[in-house]
Amino acid sequence: MDVNAAVAAAAAIAGVLTGVIAMLAFRWSERDLKRPTRTSLHTDPVLPPGVDTVLSVLRSSAVVLDEGDAVVKASSAAYALGLVRGGELSVEPMLQMARDTRRDGEIRQVELDLPRRGTGRGDALAVSARVAPLGSRLVLLLVEDLTEARRIEAVRRDFVANVSHELKTPVGALSLLSEAVMDASDDPEAVERFAGRMQIEATRLTSLVQELIDLSRVQNDDPLEDAEPVGVDELVAEAMDRCRHAAGTKQITMAAGGTADLSIWGNRGQLAAALGNLVENAVNYSPARTRVGIAARRVSAPGGDLIEIAVTDQGIGISDKDKERIFERFYRVDPARSRATGGTGLGLAIVKHVAASHGGEVTVWSSEGQGSTFTLRLPEAGAARDRAQQHPDLDDEAGQTAGSHPRRSPDSPPDSTAYETLSAPEVLP
Questions:
Q1: Which residues of 354-374 are buried (b: 16+ CB within 10 A; e: fewer)?
Q2: How does 153-185 read in b/e, with b if 16+ C-beta sit within 10 Å?
Q3: Least confident segment among 118-127, 172-181, 345-354, 407-416
Q4: According to DSSP H, which parts of 34-91 are helical?
Q5: CA–CA separation, 39 vs 77, rounded Å?
Q6: 347 neighbors 211 (Cβ within 8 angstroms)
Q7: Which of 62, 159, 312, 361 could form a disulfide with 55 if both were Cys (CB 3.0 to 4.6 A apart)?
Q8: Phi and psi (nearest 5°) for 350?
């Protein structure tokens, strides 16, 4: 009997222990489920009805904090920006704002520059943070990324400053020259000399205004709205005619070659302006009695055949540091030489935008003292038209397709096969 009693007592004790352990395990599992996780954005019961739905459609990063500064809810964008780490708000200024708002109930807003974590880049992340009370115990934090807006604003400021400077130079020169003409009214030779200078400055001002208009047009207009097949031979002939006088003055030979009867799908006016700018630059920056070649060919690509139009000169060439910036607006490799040739620094920027808006790209190969080759690479007429008809949404992404085509390394010389037909060129003039 004593043995049976002992066994019964032991069984009872074991049962009690099992029950206690089960209860503790159940409570521990409930506690784990209540913890916020990064992969599961839960809605705590303390959130007011409908708040979760509203926060899910906001473009801003959203974080909800409870009275203990614990994260009740955080959007995926908040994790992407690095605002929430380990279930806690990791930005101290925002955390202090939340505490102040919880204390006095006032809405606060501030703009901050946050370091980019894990990217290895030194530039900061510009954000706008707004904190407001949510109910009696919660605080809502909305954070908007302003980095791209800041970048666009900086570009706009630089553009306005550059335009003001570029316009001020010829306008100031015209003002001074007009005063000089008035003072030298009794000297016919001086008047003639000053009038010639005025004509040069007026021409430069006209070119600058026209290129500003052209740049604005290619940036804002959709070239594929009025697209048509454009013959490459016609574009080349028009570009040569545009530079015929300047080339003849410097005794520069212009030669056209490559594959004949090619066509591009796009806006004729913009394509002509882009190729004309490349040929004009080649003539302006080439020494006298040299040669400028223009060649076209068809190349295969995964998305359809492309047309390459290469403009080669025997000019001064471009250094490696300048090659990275020559397509920037108003950037000049040699400002003094640009003033002598009447350059505005906008020609290559226009070429870049035209190529991108047509779903192509422009590349440059150059070696100092040996010359340069600028290559326009654009979709062929048939392939581009078929793609636009089958996928109309691709037209809006024309700028993003630049760089998606196979390309040579900028440090590699141009493919000589593209210029084989230049051995028996059509020479102008």
A1: bbbbbbbbbbbbbeeeebbbb
A2: eeeeeeeeebbeebeeebeebbeebeebbeeee
A3: 407-416
A4: 51-57, 76-80
A5: 12
A6: yes
A7: 62
A8: -65, -45
Report the alpha-carbon distance of residue 360 to residue 308 in Å, rounded: 10
- Please state, in angstroms and rounded to a whole number, the distance separating the CA atoms of residues 47 and 64: 9
CB 234: neighbour CB atoms within 10 A? 13
Nearest to 232 by CA among 381, 382, 350: 381
Q: What is the pLDDT of residue 24?
A: 59
* Alpha helical stretches, state H, 250-364: 268-284, 320-323, 335-341, 347-357
At which residue do the structure tokens 């540091």 appear? Answer: 321
Which residues, in sequence order, are bridge partners of residue 286?
none
Annotate 250-263 with DSSP letters as a single string. Answer: TT-EEEEEE-SS-E
Separate counts of helices (H) and strands (E) for the chain: 13, 15
Instruction: Give the Cα separation of 216 and 100 in Å (integer).
Output: 47
DSSP code at position 371 = E
In 207-312 the beta strands, taken as DSSP E runs, fall at 228-231, 253-258, 263-266, 291-299, 306-312
Q: Where are the alpha helices (DSSP H) in 34-146?
A: 51-57, 76-80, 92-104
Position 241 pLDDT exceeds 90:
yes
How far, rounded to the nearest angstrom, does the alpha carbon of residue 338 sit from its chain's CA centroid?
Answer: 26
The pLDDT score that the predictor gives to residue 423 is: 36
Global pTM exceeds 0.85: no
CA atoms within a 13 Å half-sphere pointing along the CA-CB vector of 429:
12
Give the range with max mean pLDDT: 40-44, 45-49, 122-126, 245-249.
Answer: 245-249
Q: Which amino acid is at 362?
A: V
Residue 217 has pLDDT above 80, yes or no: no
Measuring CA to CA, which residue among 130, 135, 140, 128 is closest to residue 64?
Answer: 140
Tell me the backbone φ, ψ of residue 360, rounded to 5 degrees.
-130, -155
CA distance 146 to 150: 6
Dihedral (Cα; 13, 14, 20, 21), 10-degree rounding: 150
